[in-house]
Amino acid sequence: MRKSYLFTSESVSEGHPDKVSDQISDAIVDLMLGKDPEARVACETMTTTQRVILSGEIRCAPMYDNNNPDWADNGGWAPGAKDEIEQAVRQTVREIGYEQDGFHWKTLTFENHLHGQSSEIAQGVDSSGNKDEGAGDQGIMFGFACDETPDLMPATLDYSHKILERLAADRKSGAAPFLEPDAKSQLSLRYEDGKPVACTAIVVSTQHGKGYHEGEKEAELKAYVQKVVTEILPDGWISGDTEWHINPTGAFEIGGPDGDAGLTGRKIIVDTYGGAAPHGGGAFSGKDPTKVDRSAAYITRYLAKNIVAAGLATRCTIQLSYAIGVSKPLSLYVDTHGTAADGVSDEALENAIRGIEKLGGLTPRGIRTHLGLNKPIYRESAAYGHFGRQADGDRFPWERTDLVEDLKAALG
User: DSSP labels for 271-327?
Assistant: First the structure.
């Protein structure tokens, strides 16, 4: 890898239309898992002007059973279940902050097209007899960690997230009442000897109240954004050579799903590593943790983070692959990019991971059991990145660094 270069990552706020869709989809996952920890959910959301549409497949006995004759007149839904889903959708939009003419939590039109899970998928995924529970789909998943930030994340993405989190917090607290929910950020950093040392360009585009694109109001908004960015980035990164682009297109009053349609799963690079690491292609939001798109991406981040936290490498990429209906991973790959500690090889790390019994062989159930994924913990992950977050109790368990000693012991 080059030692000196420029690199850029972007983030989007919770009010971005695609992120609104992600959060709604994960609110449905949380609702179902709260009813049944073994629920199966694949929920896709589309948002547009004054409209939210759900589609996908579910299996959650307390909510939906198309074989229940008592629920036949309601299309297989339990009494009140459809109302609970609609309430979860509207509450999510309300908490994001949308109360605009073009998108309002109370008055938007809602459509629910969720239906039962395919029996053919179920037979491959469910455990039965001597068959262990299989992966919910084929695919490749990547995890990554590096020592660029305390969160062990790429600095370009980590700080892009933090800028938008601060804007949202100030909007909701009233400290920045001129802000509206939709926003994007982008940072370009200069790296020397593989470490970030300076910010060469900053882009922040934020939806705003009426008139904040001209005159004194525009100056107030830009001064506020510059202050936030300066407070968040490390000292010395911003200089007179740093390029600033704050709302470079001008007015940004129409935003969110009213300004552009949103879909679940369109921000997978924002969700992961900002382009600093490979991505297998599968989105996370809207999927229960039997789907390895989600659970295997979480365990690979967990493994990579623990390797870096243990001082075994300063940069680590891990890949897993699966086949639908098959429990054990088809492959495990570790790449420390030449940064491994003395006496530690990538192959040795692979063997160490395979030998840690508590990981359950990295099967779908083993992953879920070790990380405790069968819980309603996902909506919060659907904005500002799934990784680089603070593990706390049930929250973001894949960010724990409790495997450090196991890895060291396995390496001997």
Answer: HTTTTSS---S---TTB-TTSHHHHHHHHHHHHHHHHHHTTS-SEEEEEEEE-BT--
Taking Cα atoms as reference points, which of 166, 161, 156 lies closest to residue 224?
166
What pLDDT score was predicted for residue 191? 97
What is the enclosing helix (H) or strand (E) of 94? helix 81-96
Residue 120's pLDDT band, with cuts at 50, 70 and 90, is low
Question: How do residues 306-319 score in pLDDT, each as one tens digit?
Answer: 999 999 999 999 99
Nearest to 258, CA basis, from 108, 95, 380: 108
Place of tokens 């493994």: 303
Beta-bridged to residue 321, according to DSSP, are: 140, 331
Q: Measuring CA to CA, which residue among 264, 371, 369, 381 is closest to residue 38?
A: 369
Q: Report the alpha-carbon distance of residue 116 to residue 44 in Å, rounded.
A: 14
User: Which residues are catalytic, by number?
Assistant: 16, 18-19, 44, 57, 184, 252, 260-261, 266-267, 287, 291, 293
Closest by Cα among 7, 382, 34, 387 to 194:
7
Residue from 132, 151, 144 nearest 320 by CA = 144
- Rounded Cα distance between 354 and 359, Å, is 8
Q: List Cα–Cα distances, 26 to 75, 100, 284, in angstroms.
A: 23, 23, 9
Residues 6+ apart with CB under 8 A from 366: 359, 360
